[in-house]
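WARN no homologs supplied; continuing
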Amino acid sequence: MNRLYFLAIALSASFSLGFFVHSFFIPEDTSQLELKPVENMKLGAFSVSLNVQNLEESKAFYEALGFEVFGGAMESKYLIMKNENSLIGLFQGMFEGNILTFNPGWDENAQETPQFDDIRKIQQHLQSQNLEIINPADKDSEGPASFMLKDPDGNMILVDQHR
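OK structure emitted
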């Protein structure tokens, strides 16, 4: 239970931080970027964080789709819902838009994975591809860190490492 509570608090803090980010820069013409993929980049667990208008209604909707509450709390205005390997975060009034999230070092059950790419390695690769990093992780640090970026359509992506 403590791990779920920590997961929920960490996700909430990360998403709240993103809410306060005001300046997002992405090249106007991304067609000129030559992106080179990294073989087998390990981004970890994937989830979608949805900005919902009514948490109760959204909870009921996703329960009808077979999701169950995995973390969070109604009184905290967010829930993490799970259906097999699929994770959806429902957040009421915490940030604008929706966010795609990757958690290096974790699987979809918030369990540590034996091998993963450290967030600073991922960040370095993305920067070498001329992608604009928002709130970059300190390249000289170790352990938990996060950064954000936008895809060419303006969708926010959070890469959030907890270990």
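The domain at 2-17+43-161 is CATH 3.10.180.10 (2,3-Dihydroxybiphenyl 1,2-Dioxygenase; domain 1).
OK
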